[in-house]
Design brief:
By secondary structure, the protein is an alpha+beta fold. Helix content is 15%, strand content 26%. It starts with 14 loop residues before the first strand and ends with a helix. Bound molecules: FE2/S2 (inorganic) cluster. The site of FE2/S2 (inorganic) cluster (FES) has 13 residues, from loops.
Length: 102
């Protein structure tokens, strides 16, 4: 049976709420953030500055920077970050771009 995400999770994880792009997600506490977001069905982590093309994690080891997200106001690599309760996560510069259009 096909699921929303091709990633499987362990079922006994303690979950904590985080916010991503205005949605509340319950992610496994202490898990790799990039993996947890992918498993939750997030497919777009950021958009490129020039063309606006969608990007998502590629290397999962801190080399490609395709997984950049803004966490509590700081742009960081999701694949190098652990999930913790109450994180406020957004796509980098997304609100700035919307402000510039208005
Ligand atoms: S997925 Fe490549 S740096 Fe995070």
């Amino acid at each position: 049976m096909k699921t929303v995400s091709p990633f499987l999770e362990l079922e006994d994880d303690d979950r904590v709420p985080v916010r991503f792009a205005g949605r509340t997600l319950d992610l496994p506490d202490g898990a790799n953030l990039a993996a947890a977001l992918l498993a939750a069905g997030v497919q777009v982590f950021r958009h490129t500055a020039v063309s606006g093309a969608p990007r998502a994690p590629f290397c999962m080891m801190g080399a490609c920077f395709e997984c950049l997200v803004e966490i509590d106001g700081v742009v960081r690599q999701a694949c190098m970050t652990d999930v913790r309760e109450g994180m406020e996560i957004s796509r980098p510069h997304e609100s700035e771009a919307e402000d510039a259009i208005e």
